[in-house]
Give the backbone structure.
Amino acid sequence: MFKQLETIESFVTPSNMKVTVLYKPDFKQQSMIIGVPFGGIHSNVLNQHGQPYHSGLAHFLEHKLFESESGDIMAAFSSLGASVNAFTSYQETCYYFNTTSNFAQSCDLLLNLVSSCTLSEESVEKEKGIIISELAMYDAMVDQALVKNMYQALYHTHPIRNDIGGDADNVNAISKEELMDAFERFYHPSLMHCVCVTNQSIEEVKSLILAHPLAQNPSLPPQVDSKMLVEPREVALTHVSKTMDIEESKGIYALKLNAHSNSPMENMKMQFAIRFILEASLSEMNPQYQEWIDEGIINDFFDMDVDVSSTYSYVAFICEHEHLDHVFSWLDTVLPSLDCDEVSLNQLKRRYLGMSLKALNKPSSLSKQMIRYALNELDFFDVLHLFQDMSHIDIQQARTALLSSLNHVSKVKIEPIE
Amino acid sequence: MFQTQEIAQNFHFYHKLSTQFKDNTLVFRFLLPMSQESINTALVWSQLCDDRTTFAPTKQQMLRVMDELYDASYGSYLTTYGQSFALTVVFKGIEGSFVNNETQNDAFVTWALNVLTHVLMTEETLKEAKLNVFQNMKREQENSVKHALALSAERFLPQSYGLKVEGDESVMNLTLDELIKFQSLLFQQPTACFQVGQLDQEMVMNHLKKSILNQDKSSLLTYTLLNPLPLDRQSVFKVSSQSVLIKTYATNIDYADERYLALRVGAIALGSLPTSLLFTTVREKHSLCYFITASVIAFDGVLNIITGIDKENVDQVSLLIDEQWKAFKEVSDELISQAKLMMLNSLRSSDDDVMSTVNLMYASSLKNEVFDLSRVESLILNLSKEDIINAMNQCVACNEFVLLGENHV
């Protein structure tokens, strides 16, 4: 259904780069995004000396790729009227631009940007101050602190324990050599995905991508060896307590799930099914929700998050309360009865149909969603159908996974400084 | 392009037929006189709108109605317009043709107007909404940059309330009678209704005409230029890994001034581009920050420079900012050209975002104009470097605020 609403074409370049072009003739803004499967989670990859990468390496490399021998790349984009940016997540690094003019030249520039890396010792050292300032900005945010502490409480060895940007010690230890090592291993066209949202014809866009050197000359990607992950089923810490200069205590009650598999599609289905159960049981859909609000157990800050990835899975309940133990006790009580009946399932399917249609409204955010799915070997439009086909059996499987994790809990508190 | 109709005095309906989006958007914008009481009450009232109506008196029923309409959504926010502030309420619903439902569009408009005009106002709902506003306000204070902005604006109160549009603790004293009175007054304020999508214009008009909104409205003044105060510096301590520096300038140029576009382009060249003077100097050359921006608050005549830095570097960064103002006299043609392109890019892409289109249309309507993109494009392209330097020369530094981040010992 969703694909029929859009004109879209996917192809693979001779260099094995995967490309998707979405034709949006009504939109003035055009965008291109290129994703590389190298993110914060890849700090277990071994460098040429057999040592694991420093945490924050992918993010550091993202910063440095904007330097070029041929001049300032930012200035080149600005001269074309295009705004360029990048982000590093746990799973990937993505580079993108948005523009209403000079689309072809901007595409060329972005393809150039990920094609080569030229670094000097001096520029690497200079960047460290900027990155440490960025990390300080995130450290000052209570929501970031909650998530960071949650990962460290849930996991013993999994690299998700480390911040995407690393910490000051790791950033200071990163060298030009290590950055080049990572670039050589991960910035290979056969590992890259590219998504374009354009008002030009798909054929035109295809031609200009295929004409770029990055799209030509097939070659084998370098070998990537990783330190083996041995993550126990139990949580690393059951309780964490920190203080910050905040007005009200905030906490996370996190369940370490064992719901992930090697199949990205199965993981996505599990994630949706768990999300449905949580919505049906702990949101306004449940008539008891009003009682919980009136009794002051939860407030409108209360939120839930689910992540089912190929190497980890968890559920997090985010809350705010003067006495967080009250909320944690309440969760202990309500979680065993989580469920989603047929009526709720149908209501949620209708909601998610609307949400999916709305996702097609914003080409710039759509391209970001598409690239993240593509890098995880998923088709964005196939994923949109997952919840429509969700059955009661899927819900029950997800419920079983949830209930079997009720003894694997980490409770994180961040309280005001007294 | 929007088509405009006046439904009642100072109640305008702007309609834009578009097949660009998968949903339909209805926006209501009420312009209110600025006061802290009014801001508090508007925040509570918009919380209640999102909560329940007399037609759907529980949260569960409200959500069920919205899901019946395929994730129909409600959103609201406050923005400043000089001596006034706007309460904007946004409704979105999937276009009926995408879900093969002929009654979807009519049901969506009915729902939106019910939410707006049949808010469930009881002691219980009021208590919950007040607490939500109060707690939201506290959370805003936890964000260093937002907290610093709110504190830095206090120096200009009450002359320019526009810098600060947050609730305060007195919201907890709001009574049900005051809230009911506010709603009655709200529907008498200058109102604009925008519709973007494929809704039938006549159908929406009929709904509006039958609603309580269909009454003559008052008119309001909107512009305030910040009166430059003698330059002052304040510091406030916060336990935080980062300090925030905010430098405030009176622009002496308001939104209706012919030099306004030159000022906007100048601010972009000063600090809204990765090639801007501030970014290239403070971040790229000296590695002193991750972010630094310059932005114009249009209807208040204010330009703010904001950056997150280490507390040891506050004086150095402040000095570097001052130096970039001086260096602006020698700004390069290339940077000016990039700033113009960025502004053009932003204006051209506004068509892709409903709220950007609405904001441009609304801002023009406040100076009794209709937004004309090609005219504005031409004005920007014709700006000379001298026009831009002259506009930036009107700016007068009047405050420097530092939220001094200290590590907890």
Notes: Chain A touches chain B through 68 residues (CB under 8 Å). Chain A has a mean pLDDT of 94.
